[in-house]
Amino acid sequence: MEYNFPVTRTTHPKPRPADESKLGFAQYFTDHMFCMDWDEGQGWHDGRIVPHAPIEIEPASCVLHYAQMMFEGMKAYKTPSGAIQIFRPEMNIARMARTCERMCIPELPGDLFLAAVKAVIWEDRDWIPSSPGTALYIRPFIFGDEVSFSVLPAKHYRFMIILTPTGSYYAANDGGLATTRIFVQDEYIRAARGGTGFAKVGGNYGGGMRASLDAMKYQCKDVLWLDAAEHKYVEEIGTSNAFFRINDEVITAPLDSGTILPGITRNSVIQLLKKWGVKVSERKLAIDDIIAASKDGSLQEIFASGTAAVISPIGCLNFKGTDYKVADEQVGPVAQKLYDTLYGIQTGKVEDDMGWTYKLFDLK
Ligand code: COI
Q: Is 17 left (phi over 0), alpha (psi -120 to 50) or beta?
C-alpha cells in the first residue's frame, strides 16, 4: 500500500551537532518526529510528520500508571555512495508484532511501519552522521493513552518515531572499541519465565535501574543479569545480549526460556560466526564456569551485542565485589572482527553478502 503522510515542517530548525565524534548516545534529537493514532473501530489513522517537540498527555493516561507500551531500536546509515540504509527491518517488524501481542497493543502493519520510518528519516536526512562509529538511531514506540485506571488494555494508542544522531552506547571517545567493566547482578532479576523478558517494553528497563546504580558503585557501566530461578546462569546485559568465548567456543543464552531479548545483532552475530566456522552455542552457561575460566585462563572474550551497543567488548566482570579479568582486558579478535564486519555492512563499506541491508533512498 502507498502511504502519504502530511508534513508540518519546523519553523525553528536546530543547529546540528558540530562534532560528530562527541555525539554520545541520544543527546541530540532531530527536527521532526512521526505521530499516528489508533482508535477502536478505526485502527491506525492520521499518520503525520510534525516538529519534534514535547507532547501533551492527560495525567490519567494508562501508560503513565500501568506502563502499557512497547518500543524498538534501529539505526540508519549513510553509505559512501550516498545511499541511506537500515539493517534487517523485517526482524524489528517481527519482534514488534510479538511485543504488541504480549502487551495487548494493536499490531502495526509492517509496511505502514516501514513507510513511517522512511518518511521521517527523509525529512531529517541531513541529520544522519557519517563519522566512524556513528549512525542515526531510530526509536519507534507505541503507548496506550486512554484515560483509565482499569488494569485493562487501552482503547486509544499513539505510535511515534523519534530520531537521534548517535555514537555507540559504550563507545570509546574516538568512536572505536574499548573494553568496559560489567557488574554481575546476583540479587535483583530482570525477567522470569512467563514474564515480558522477550518483549521490548519499558518496564524491563525501568525495573533494571536499581541494579544499574549498584553497578556504578563498582565503577561498572552496566549489569550482567542472572536467571530468576536459580541466580546461576547468565542471561543478558542491561542494554544488550551477552556472548562469552571460552576455549574457542562462543556461548550465548538460549531464547527458549522467554527471558532473553531476541536481539537482531545477536542473531546476526550467530549467523556470522557460523559462516566463519567459529563454534557458537546457544546454551545455558553458569556464572561459576565463567569465573573458573577467568581464573584458569580459558576465558578468551566477553562482548555485548545490540543496536545501541553494536559490539561492545567487556574487559572485566565484577562478581560479589571481586574483579575477574577477561583475558588481558584488551579488545578481543572475535569482537573486533564482528564489529568491523557488522558496522562495515551497515555503513556500506563491507559487501553485504548476507542480504541484511535495506536501502531507503539515495541522497544524490
Ligand atoms: C537498543 O539497542 O536499540 C536498545 O533499545 C537498548 C536501549 C536500552 C539502549
A: beta
Domain ranges of the chain: 20-167, 180-346
Measured in Å, residue 300 CA sits from the centre of ligand 1 at 26
Q: Which CATH architecture has domain 20-167?
A: 2-Layer Sandwich (3.30)
Residue 33 CA to ligand 1 center (angstroms) comes to 19
pLDDT tens digit string along 10-47? 999 999 999 999 999 999 999 999 999 999 999 999 99
Say which CATH class 180-346 falls into.
alpha beta
Burial degree of 11 (CB within 10 A; 0-12, 13-18, 19+):
exposed
Instruction: Report CA(25)–ligand 1 centroid distance (Å).
Output: 10
C-alpha cell at 66: 500501568
- The reply to whether the predicted model has a pTM over 0.90 is yes
Residues 6+ apart with CB under 8 A from 94: none
